[in-house]
Amino acid sequence: MTAQRACGVGELEQDTPLRVVIDDVAIAIVKDADDEIHAIGDRCTHGDISLAEGFVEGKTLECWAHGSAFSLETGHPLNLPAYEPVPVYVVTIDGDDVLIDPTVIKEV
């Protein structure tokens, strides 16, 4: 599969997650305070909660329900109760388009 358009760069607000679904894969896209764009799996591994409804702080995305924070760069949880990582996807910017291939997990 090839990368598909997930959203436009202009649709992303700093530190505000955006939920997208590509080929039935839910992904949370975040533009952090450094204007870097990240894409991680949208489901908290602790409670099956949408991470896109959570809170961004620095390079982390915190689940609103139980407080587990996940690294936007590695997908690893930084605190309990989550202990399993979420997938991190490769992000490609093409003009104003954010492209993601949901079948390619970023090597971290």
From TrEMBL:
This is Non-heme iron oxygenase ferredoxin subunit. The keyword Cell membrane does not apply. Keywords: 2Fe-2S, Iron, Iron-sulfur, Metal-binding. InterPro entries: Rieske_2Fe-2S, Rieske_2Fe-2S_sf. Residues 4-100 form the Rieske domain. Coiled coil: none annotated. It comes from Microbacterium bandirmense. Signal peptide: none annotated. It comes from the Bacteria. SUPFAM superfamilies: ISP domain.
